[in-house]
Amino acid sequence: MRGKVGLVIGLAAGYVLGTRAGRERYEQIKEQAEKVWNLPPVQKQVDKAKDLGKSAAMALPTALWNGTVKVVKAASERGTAGERLDAAVETGRDSAEDIAAAAETTAGEVKDALRDRDGS
Prior knowledge:
Blueprint: H1 2-37, H2 40-75, H3 81-118
Helix pairs in contact: 2-3
Protein name: Protoporphyrinogen oxidase
Protein backbone atom coordinates (compact mmCIF):
# COMPACT_ATOMS: atom_id res chain seq x y z
CA MET A 1 0.00 0.00 0.00
CA ARG A 2 2.84 2.38 0.87
CA GLY A 3 4.37 1.78 -2.54
CA LYS A 4 1.15 2.74 -4.26
CA VAL A 5 0.77 5.94 -2.24
CA GLY A 6 4.39 6.88 -2.96
CA LEU A 7 3.89 6.15 -6.64
CA VAL A 8 0.76 8.33 -6.78
CA ILE A 9 2.52 11.19 -4.95
CA GLY A 10 5.53 10.87 -7.26
CA LEU A 11 3.33 10.87 -10.35
CA ALA A 12 1.39 13.89 -9.10
CA ALA A 13 4.57 15.85 -8.33
CA GLY A 14 6.04 14.93 -11.72
CA TYR A 15 2.87 15.94 -13.48
CA VAL A 16 2.73 19.34 -11.76
CA LEU A 17 6.39 20.11 -12.39
CA GLY A 18 6.24 18.79 -15.94
CA THR A 19 3.19 20.79 -16.87
CA ARG A 20 4.76 23.99 -15.58
CA ALA A 21 7.94 23.43 -17.58
CA GLY A 22 5.92 22.16 -20.52
CA ARG A 23 3.66 25.20 -20.53
CA GLU A 24 6.62 27.59 -20.42
CA ARG A 25 8.30 25.81 -23.32
CA TYR A 26 5.02 25.72 -25.22
CA GLU A 27 4.67 29.48 -24.79
CA GLN A 28 8.24 29.99 -26.07
CA ILE A 29 7.60 27.87 -29.13
CA LYS A 30 4.27 29.59 -29.76
CA GLU A 31 5.87 33.04 -29.49
CA GLN A 32 8.62 32.10 -31.98
CA ALA A 33 6.11 30.60 -34.40
CA GLU A 34 4.03 33.80 -34.29
CA LYS A 35 7.15 35.88 -35.01
CA VAL A 36 7.96 33.75 -38.05
CA TRP A 37 4.33 33.77 -39.22
CA ASN A 38 4.23 37.57 -39.11
CA LEU A 39 7.42 38.09 -41.15
CA PRO A 40 6.74 39.97 -44.41
CA PRO A 41 8.11 37.20 -46.70
CA VAL A 42 5.88 34.62 -45.01
CA GLN A 43 2.82 36.85 -45.24
CA LYS A 44 3.59 37.52 -48.91
CA GLN A 45 3.46 33.79 -49.60
CA VAL A 46 0.30 33.46 -47.51
CA ASP A 47 -1.37 36.16 -49.60
CA LYS A 48 -0.30 34.43 -52.82
CA ALA A 49 -1.77 31.16 -51.58
CA LYS A 50 -5.03 32.87 -50.62
CA ASP A 51 -5.31 34.56 -54.02
CA LEU A 52 -4.58 31.31 -55.83
CA GLY A 53 -7.13 29.49 -53.71
CA LYS A 54 -9.81 32.04 -54.48
CA SER A 55 -9.30 32.10 -58.23
CA ALA A 56 -8.45 28.45 -58.84
CA ALA A 57 -10.99 27.06 -56.45
CA MET A 58 -13.86 28.99 -57.96
CA ALA A 59 -13.16 28.52 -61.67
CA LEU A 60 -14.02 24.85 -61.85
CA PRO A 61 -17.09 24.76 -59.57
CA THR A 62 -18.51 27.78 -61.39
CA ALA A 63 -18.10 26.06 -64.75
CA LEU A 64 -19.68 22.88 -63.37
CA TRP A 65 -22.63 24.78 -61.95
CA ASN A 66 -23.21 26.79 -65.11
CA GLY A 67 -23.04 23.62 -67.20
CA THR A 68 -25.54 21.86 -65.00
CA VAL A 69 -27.96 24.77 -65.16
CA LYS A 70 -27.71 24.86 -68.97
CA VAL A 71 -28.34 21.13 -69.30
CA VAL A 72 -31.36 21.28 -66.98
CA LYS A 73 -32.80 24.23 -68.91
CA ALA A 74 -32.25 22.44 -72.22
CA ALA A 75 -33.90 19.27 -70.90
CA SER A 76 -36.93 21.16 -69.63
CA GLU A 77 -37.68 23.16 -72.77
CA ARG A 78 -40.80 22.50 -74.78
CA GLY A 79 -40.81 19.85 -77.42
CA THR A 80 -40.93 16.13 -77.66
CA ALA A 81 -38.96 13.93 -75.31
CA GLY A 82 -36.48 13.18 -78.10
CA GLU A 83 -35.98 16.88 -78.86
CA ARG A 84 -35.41 17.67 -75.20
CA LEU A 85 -32.93 14.80 -74.90
CA ASP A 86 -31.05 15.95 -78.00
CA ALA A 87 -30.92 19.52 -76.67
CA ALA A 88 -29.67 18.33 -73.28
CA VAL A 89 -26.97 16.15 -74.87
CA GLU A 90 -25.79 18.96 -77.13
CA THR A 91 -25.71 21.41 -74.23
CA GLY A 92 -23.86 18.83 -72.16
CA ARG A 93 -21.18 18.55 -74.84
CA ASP A 94 -20.76 22.33 -74.93
CA SER A 95 -20.64 22.47 -71.14
CA ALA A 96 -18.01 19.73 -71.06
CA GLU A 97 -15.79 21.91 -73.23
CA ASP A 98 -16.30 24.85 -70.85
CA ILE A 99 -15.47 22.65 -67.87
CA ALA A 100 -12.35 21.32 -69.57
CA ALA A 101 -11.22 24.87 -70.30
CA ALA A 102 -11.80 25.88 -66.68
CA ALA A 103 -9.83 22.84 -65.49
CA GLU A 104 -6.94 23.75 -67.80
CA THR A 105 -7.01 27.34 -66.54
CA THR A 106 -7.00 26.16 -62.94
CA ALA A 107 -4.13 23.75 -63.58
CA GLY A 108 -2.18 26.52 -65.31
CA GLU A 109 -2.67 28.87 -62.37
CA VAL A 110 -1.48 26.21 -59.96
CA LYS A 111 1.60 25.50 -62.08
CA ASP A 112 2.40 29.22 -62.32
CA ALA A 113 2.04 29.62 -58.58
CA LEU A 114 4.35 26.69 -57.95
CA ARG A 115 6.87 28.06 -60.43
CA ASP A 116 6.75 31.47 -58.69
CA ARG A 117 7.15 29.82 -55.31
CA ASP A 118 10.14 27.79 -56.42
CA GLY A 119 11.69 30.74 -58.21
CA SER A 120 11.99 28.86 -61.50
